[in-house]
Amino acid sequence: MTRGYAGKFLEINLSNGNIKETKFPDEVLRDYVGGRGLATKILWDRLGGKWETVDPFCPENVLLVLTGPLTGYLLGAKVCVSGKSPQSNGVIGSTVAGEFGIDLKCAGYDGLIITGKAERPCYIFICDNHVEIKDASPIWGKKARETLRFLVKKSIEEIKAIRSKHGEVKEPSILYIGSAGENKTRVAAVIAKYAHGAGYGGYGGVMGAKNLGAIVAKGFGPLPDVYNREKVLQLYQDFSERNFEAKGFRRWGTGGGGYYFGAETSSEPIRNWQEEWHDKESYKRGKFDKFWVKKYWGDFGCPTTCLKLAVLKTGRFKGTICDNPDYEFEAYLGTNLGIFTPEENIYLSYVSNELGLCGIQGGAVLGFAADLYEKGILTKKDLDGIDLKWGNTEAFATLAEKIAFRQGIGDILAEGVYRAALKLSKMKGVDLLKYAVHEKGVAIGAHGVRSGKDFAKNIAYACSVQAGDHTSLTSLPLDQSELSTIMADSAIYCFFNTFDIEDTEIFSFYKAVTGWKLTNKEWYGEKALRILHLQRAMLLLGGPDAKWRPKLDDDNPPRFWEPLPSGPYKGKTLDRKMFEKARLKYYSAVGWDEEGVPRPETLRRLGLEDVEAKLKEVGLIK
Amino acid sequence: MFKPNPPHHFISKPQIFNMPNMRYVHIMGAKPRERRTQTIKGNINRNDQVRIKRNYKKCSGCRRCEIACSLYHEGKIWPESSRIRVFMFVPGVEIPQLCFQCEDYPCVKACPVDALSVNSQTGAVNVDALRCTDCGLCVKACPGNVPHSHPKGNYIVICDLCGGKPKCVEACQEGRWNALTLVPRKKERSFL
């Protein structure tokens, strides 16, 4: 009997409305754990043979919403959204916080496998074993707030009708997309609880392409049984207490970094990465405080609760209610657009939440457009009269809306930084890829590598299988690289709650929950590598619209090779030779050849013979 | 695998058994049984009793109170069976909902099978799970709509103050959120 898992997965075919339960054998769960790991396995099994021909927006693509064995037990409840990514054409395990995973597990499911495409806009309603596909036309085209209000109200009525129990019904958990997702942009996020988004990968667009507006889940059961209850409780308490001590992080969240990463480490994107240093006192962490109405805001079981709630009571943007921007939003919807005041930053966060845009991907494409406007490549006429100067908040908000609804220039920008650069290059006849800051189609997280002082260094993005994802960074030695992130994304717990918790402790927690022993050697030498290789293989296979060359595309974007123009690290950039050396070293450490293609003997050792055959078929392995 | 802690009706063991008042209502097959607890009388020292005070603005919505409550009462992490439940009105506005401990106990009065009783030590409402028929009259009587059916069992759950030391308050205070605090219960005090 599997402990920690609910035991069954729900498979929903939107094309014909078939709903069935599936199971995975214990060996698969042991090897791929859940979440991101299991997602790669499912996608490889279903689409691996024809991966390079599958368009992420076609009905064939599989959308996965998966929990892991540690969801709900280890601190920070999250759920992993995955599928073939419209950004990188590979697999990205994108996690989003919220109670959705808990409700799904309480309803008795470990995850959802959604295939096909509905004819009309629909949403999935899950209440224990009652699963239904419902009409979503009332929420289609609505702003996030209205969508949420409608779904909560309607679902509570339905739950009351299904269950003959007394007392108030608690609101269900909802994953939904905004207008950006409905219009199949590549910068759309899957959103939960208004303020949390699974942005990397662009799965909002995949949901939109399936005509799936939202997934509503409510579970009334307990979380699955665990193997060793006392040990789980002891570690739960121990980890919690350690997190309670992290006073600074609890108080400020990552939002405390808006000034620090700019002024101290010089790694914050400013004006589409033209600079990485700023010294604006107005962006210091205390400056955001006066807009907070709530100091701590978190999700199920979180000891840190690093989120904050901000309200603008006066000024131009009076009435804005939003989560206080975290560091990524401060950077991408603030400094990256030349905005250095908290009010405007909070307002843009609110706009991106309402439209269902990913703050990082959307912010990057806005910054890219403004960069081109500054250079005179995009004119006012192209932008339908928008004066897209740095720091012009209203202009950025208007353009964000255009992107979400794919109107005018927004139709091109909605393709994400890389694809928009390609299209605009063709239109304008100039090479614009040098201004596009992306890694394999995914906009890079707001931690620059040029100064070398941030935690992202050197090859961090270049060799990552999740491309620009700043939570999945490569480095050496292997146990500090993305292999440990794979554990967080597969077993699913929050990265921020395990800062000072050792891997061995996580593994013993895993054993206490599932009863399966996991050692460092087993994870870093075999299981994590297997997931990494599957992700790498699918990334290299690519899709119909974009393919990545091994080695040549394992490179930082051109902007990262320009020397820093200002700040204490002025003139600094990466050393080409050092970079190539580190890249080669990383290739050999994970078992890839000098060209960055997985070696046949590594694949055979990991039991991935079919991957070897496929790579041979397309000519990657000679 | 989660073994339940002592069932909740044993934790707050009543002081006075077998009161001479043997009236009960025979509904839906509830078997005649002796009353195990006494309804409120004037001789209890109310100053020792506690009440859970809430500060809604400080609630982070982390639901660690739900975890603590369900672990204590059910031995599992089971948010829906928790006696305290955190409702999300809109994201960011989380409201912990639990028994308010009214002075007049409308739920106890409304119970047709004497399944609800007032614990003489803590002043909290105890539910006799065996006797309760899940008729829902107490929910209707409650001014705050607080009691709710156990999600799997056929009975109502109401906060019993964990026998005087509420686990939800401990969970809230160890994280320094202090949305839930304990205050002494006095008859003449206003609680709003």
Draw up the topology in text.
The complex is a heterodimer of chains A (622) and B (192).
Chain A: E1 9-13, E2 18-22, H1 26-32, H2 35-47, E3 63-66, E4 78-82, E5 94-97, H3 100-106, E6 111-115, E7 122-127, E8 130-135, H4 144-162, E9 173-176, H5 179-182, E10 190-192, E11 196-198, H6 203-209, E12 212-218, H7 229-245, H8 247-252, H9 257-263, H10 286-289, E13 292-297, E14 307-311, E15 321-323, H11 327-332, H12 342-355, H13 359-375, H14 393-405, H15 410-413, H16 416-428, E16 438-439, E17 442-443, H17 482-492, H18 503-514, H19 520-541, H20 576-590, H21 600-605, H22 609-617
Parallel strand pairs in A: 1-6, 7-12
Antiparallel strand pairs in A: 1-2, 3-4, 3-6, 4-5, 7-8, 9-10, 9-12, 10-11, 13-14, 14-15, 16-17
Helix pairs in contact in A: 1-2, 2-17, 2-19, 7-18, 12-14, 17-19
Chain B: H1 8-11, E1 50-54, H2 64-73, E2 85-90, E3 93-97, H3 106-110, E4 116-118, E5 125-127, H4 137-141, E6 148-149, E7 156-157, H5 167-174, E8 180-184
Antiparallel strand pairs in B: 1-8, 2-3, 4-5, 6-7
Helix pairs in contact in B: 2-5
Structure, described:
The complex is a heterodimer of chains A (622) and B (192). Chain A is α+β, with helices and mostly antiparallel strands and 622 residues long. Chain A has helices spanning 26-32, 35-47, 100-106, 144-162, 179-182, 203-209, 229-245, 247-252, 257-263, 286-289, 327-332, 342-355, 359-375, 393-405, 410-413, 416-428, 482-492, 503-514, 520-541, 576-590, 600-605, 609-617; strands at residues 9-13, 18-22, 63-66, 78-82, 94-97, 111-115, 122-127, 130-135, 173-176, 190-192, 196-198, 212-218, 292-297, 307-311, 321-323, 438-439, 442-443. In chain A, strands 2-1-6-3-4-5 form a six-stranded mixed β-sheet. A six-stranded mixed β-sheet of chain A has the order 8-7-12-9-10-11, sandwiched between helices. In chain A, strands 13-14-15 form a three-stranded antiparallel β-sheet. The longest helix of chain A has 22 residues, at 520-541. The two termini of chain A are 43 Å apart. Chain B has a single domain, classed as Alpha-Beta Plaits (2-Layer Sandwich). In chain B, 17% of the residues lie in helices and 16% in strands. In chain B, the strands form four sheets. Chain B has a two-stranded antiparallel sheet with strand order 1-8. Chain B has a two-stranded antiparallel ribbon with strand order 2-3. In chain B, helix 2 (64-73) runs antiparallel to helix 5. The radius of gyration of chain B is 16 Å and the shape is globular. At the A-B interface, helix 7 and strand 13 of A face helix 2, strand 2 and strand 6 of B.
